[in-house]
Design a protein that fits this description.
By secondary structure, this protein is α/β, with parallel strands linked by helices. 31% of the residues lie in helices and 20% in strands. The chain starts with a helix and ends in a 9-residue tail after the last helix.
Amino acid sequence: MTVADTKSKAQAPVGKTAAKPTVFVDGASGTTGLEIRERLDRQDDVAVKGLADDKRKDPVAKKALMAEVDLVILCLPDDAAKETVALIDGMGADAPKVLDASTAFRVAPDWTYGFPELAADQADKIRAALKVANPGCYPTGSIALLRPLVDAGLVPQDYPVTINAVSGYSGGGKSMIESFENGTAPSFELYGLGFEHKHLPETQKYAGLARRPIFVPSVGDYRQGMLVSVPLHLDTLPGKPDGAALHAALAKRYAGSTYVSVMPLDGAVVKSGRLEPEALNGSNKLELYVFASDKHRQTVLVARLDNLGKGASGAAVQNMRLMLGLPDTGLD
């Protein structure tokens, strides 16, 4: 591969270097990486390259492979992701585009945040980016609910937001997965009670909040699926809006979205008055709900998603297709 070839790879539309764009998933043995590989196996317009097991931690072999591909997806711990990005930064014209699934670069100024539905021009920013940070699962639901309301002036930037959430144990890493699957974990637990959860910085930044929100995550004894909820007292908001106004702002923001759906006001499709977290498992879908009481002037905003889908691997494949200039096939 010549320098001219690699410059073409980084700057020109996909297809200049190969019949199919090529991707390397670094860390494909972890939960997110395995899910990404499964999704890529269902798509016939991307070629996946990999390293032999004995070469996975060999920087020379990794660098040589990365020089051959169009995009690298990092499914690594934060420190390992930083090391690999430093390696890529030193590759010059040979450097591939990079999509990082860790928390290492989500608020870094020179990285593009990989939530295509964040704003009207966010998908275009991702298409043009050389470095994209894939969002966290909890922030995906939180930001999707809050950012449109902040942008519309319905929720002030300094509003004291509280975010509650429950996830399946698959998002908690190897040790948590093992503890639930071998029966040693509790049926349910709160965590992150030190107010320093790693998803807070990106949630605050991309939700548009000036005040750090209180975030209380929890995990249940089921594999995957997530509910994120934000309670609000309507009379404490500017203009004292009703639930319909909040719903309308969300519906306007996500009108025409492939993956984000704003469900009927007050959960008209939820006849039981209950919402369970597993309905979207295996998909890249995100559902947003507004439940409101005119009598009590209260509302609860709820996001439902698969923490391994739109909350991780599904979002990564969606971002990958944008970065490679591939059409949105709806298969992610």
